[in-house]
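Chapter summary example.
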Amino acid sequence: MTLVQTHSRSASADAVSRTVADAMEAAGPQVWDDMTVEVALSVMTAARTGHLLVCDEDGRCTDLVTRARLAAVREGAGYTDRVRLRDLSDDGGLFASPLTPVAEAEQAMRHRRLGVLPVVDDRGNALGVLTLSR
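The structure predicted for these 134 residues follows.
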């Protein structure tokens, strides 16, 4: 898990800047990492959402998957209907702390080309998501 890092700022700058906690939305559907890609796509369709938060057996958020990412996996040459969400893990997801300034989180999202960023507490539990503002 990679948390967006914060930098110390003066008290006056902190009073003016918004944190991720101020801007985050509800987390939305959370699923276990042993779910298959096919089932995850079905859950997304039923929930009318474009992303799912993926949790491990301890309930900690480990990843966020999007419909586009799952569709690309399904179209891949090595795909079978037994591919699980935990099999998709790459270098570890990017996560934000609720105390991270929104500007810093959005900068990290633009750098990594992410439209949605999970917000987690210090134990890795999902609190919500930050959507990149346009």
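To summarize the output: The first helix runs from residue 11 to 16.
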